[in-house]
């Protein structure tokens, strides 16, 4: 059995992008810190709190770049993430996926252990189940109600009176009701920044309207939470909002680049690959990094610029003009010049190494156990950081 | 930190599909054994050896269903797989991805440890690097040359004289040359079985022709290896072939169903999900199983029947008519009746559980740490089997 802990500890001084095993997930820490600073500065100007989503990194080490000394606040997408980050000292956590009825007791255990946990619901059934659970007098998480601001997924419409019914059930059951939360998932369909200020305003307006409806019915609404990476960056006014969530901004990716939120140079994660073959008659270079290393995510498939399974860079992270991972099998990547481009395939002999920028950082990172950390332009791996996974 | 080993050991007698945490990967062992028996019987009739690919399961426990007492032969897609399966007693291994030059020493260590390892190459550079490595007189893996039978990926054409150049370099360098290997990757583009007997014959003919060319040049060719799950099942005659490889047949999936290799009822893996919400005005049921649990694989996207992110079944594995995971975010699945279908959305209250058949077993299983094993129609989880990952 492979000892993953031993792998993570094994950072010899000589380890570098030239010598490590490939495929390998590479994290450029300078870019991470720059991306964090950019969004923090923007949100500070808007006067709102920041509750970053850690589902992209799933890493205590990365979360500590967001909160060098602190305990959050953070957002998570699974209870396993909540438990992992709590074990590392993060005690202010919002679990921003609709709460399964069978997950109530597991959530309560975290509260028992001292975590300030908020959970998300949007149905009467969930409220009743929480009220029933609370009858034993034990610890309960705080509850946020999910608001649908753009028809993307779950949530109640901001004018739906079910909001009040749910808040009433919680109050009668002695379950702490905390506020409302929404996520402008449709903002991922933007291109080149178009429509994003409007999406941010729609997200804000929906959350604030729902909060006002609840307040008018006599419920205190302490938290008005909005966020997605695109809307967080394009919001111009967040009056009435108390906190913003965003996740993929930490690393960015080609989808965010296509949406118009970042430059390719802002993308902090890449997959290091080694050339294992050539098919010059087809215009192909073969690497050892297929979809197992990149993920199956084809998030730019319907963008004006389809990046295939990723944009190919040299070992130092500089993109080749229009060279993409055009196709992938489990452990093979096929590099090719983008269809219609005048670019030429670079000279990459067998054994050469390239770095591939991913479509979707959350999906690509999830294929790996470990971040190989580099600083700026150097090839030295200065640390290897583990990731968590599972539910 | 979550103790994955503890999770795997923790199979209480009461654990069942009704009570375990979701999302969860479920493995129906009766179907696994049936799928194995079917292909074994077919290949026995054709008189060839079987070297199953274990990249789908990445599990010693599953591999032991293929070889209850034995040590292989198996095929792997990474050296980490080779090391993992070797640690579990599998000592006859073919690593069927083009060998990176920097992986030669790692492959030699396995040979040193007693593994009968074959590696795959298709360039003069790889042959020269192996010959150079062999100068120290240490253990060397056997070498197969990759043949391109259908333009799908790497390999040399069967009439390419480079085959002989490579075999000559190996002979002069004292590196054991073993034979040829090909993979009919294009067979995945078949639909409903059409063209598969012909693809199988093309795969056989290419491998045998390459072997004959090498033999005519004075090289012994002990191994003539072919295989993909579609061609393995549709081959009618394998004269000249010594062994067949296939991987996904162990579990099958919706892509194999669409290609025409299996029935939906043969699919042995599914993802157990819990209903967390409803949007009746949109015809949606929301679950806690998004793409992190299903993978981003959309392998049926261009099939006549697009299965979305998976086909929805009840908790016992019986499909609902035309209900699919129509869209997915990281931890949300959206169930919907297939566009154009007259089917109706089943009554699935909050807290209900469903099982989702995946597009691509290799990709979906890779999102999970553990197989939750069930036998036949029962809901009891009889074992939890770990998976390996990484490179």
From TrEMBL, chains A, B:
SMART domains: D-ser_dehydrat. Residues 268-375 form the D-serine dehydratase-like domain. Keywords: Lyase. Transmembrane segments: none annotated. GO terms for molecular function: D-serine ammonia-lyase activity. One of its GO terms (biological process) is D-serine catabolic process. The keyword Amino-acid biosynthesis does not apply. Signal peptide: none annotated. It comes from the Bacteria. Gene3D superfamilies: Alanine racemase, D-serine dehydratase-like domain. Pfam families: Ala_racemase_N, D-ser_dehydrat. PANTHER family: D-SERINE DEHYDRATASE (PTHR28004:SF2), ZGC:162816-RELATED (PTHR28004). Belongs to the DSD1 family. This is D-serine deaminase-like pyridoxal phosphate-dependent protein. It comes from Novosphingobium hassiacum.
């Amino acid at each position: 059995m492979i000892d993953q802990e031993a792998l993570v500890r094994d950072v010899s001084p000589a380890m570098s992008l030239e010598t490590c095993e490939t495929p390998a997930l590479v994290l450029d820490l300078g870019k991470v810190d720059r991306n964090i600073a950019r969004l923090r500065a923007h949100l500070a100007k808007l006067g709102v709190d920041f509750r970053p989503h850690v589902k992209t990194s799933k890493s205590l080490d990365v979360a500590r770049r967001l909160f060098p000394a602190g305990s959050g606040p953070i957002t998570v997408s699974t209870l396993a993430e909540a438990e992992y980050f709590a074990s590392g000292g993060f005690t202010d956590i919002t679990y921003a996926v609709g709460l399964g009825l069978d997950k109530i007791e597991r959530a309560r255990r975290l509260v028992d252990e001292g975590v300030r946990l908020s959970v998300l619901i949007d149905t009467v059934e969930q409220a009743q189940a929480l009220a029933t659970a609370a009858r034993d007098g034990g610890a309960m998480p705080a509850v946020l109600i999910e608001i649908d601001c753009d028809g993307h997924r779950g949530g109640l419409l901001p004018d739906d009176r079910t909001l009040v019914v749910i808040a009433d059930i919680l109050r009668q059951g002695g379950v702490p009701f905390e506020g409302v939360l929404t996520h402008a998932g449709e903002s991922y369909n933007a291109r080149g920044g178009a429509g994003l200020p409007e999406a941010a305003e729609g997200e804000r307006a929906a959350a604030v309207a729902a909060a006002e409806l609840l307040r008018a019915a006599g419920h205190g609404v302490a938290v008005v939470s909005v966020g997605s990476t695109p809307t967080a960056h394009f919001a111009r006014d967040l009056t009435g909002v108390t906190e913003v969530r965003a996740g993929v901004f930490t690393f960015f990716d080609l989808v965010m680049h296509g949406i118009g939120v970042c430059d390719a140079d802002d993308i902090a994660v890449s997959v290091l690959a080694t050339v294992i073959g050539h098919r010059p008659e087809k215009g192909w270079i073969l690497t050892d990094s297929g979809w197992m290393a990149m993920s199956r995510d084809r998030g730019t498939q319907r963008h004006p610029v389809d990046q295939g399974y990723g944009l190919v860079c040299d070992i130092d992270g500089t993109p080749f003009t229009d060279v993409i991972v055009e196709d992938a099998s489990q452990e093979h990547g096929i590099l090719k010049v983008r269809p219609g481009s005048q670019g030429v395939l670079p000279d990459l002999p067998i054994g050469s190494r390239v770095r591939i920028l991913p479509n979707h950082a959350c999906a690509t990172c999830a294929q790996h156990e470990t971040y190989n950390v580099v600083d700026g332009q150097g090839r030295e791996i200065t640390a290897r950081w583990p990731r968590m996974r599972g539910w």
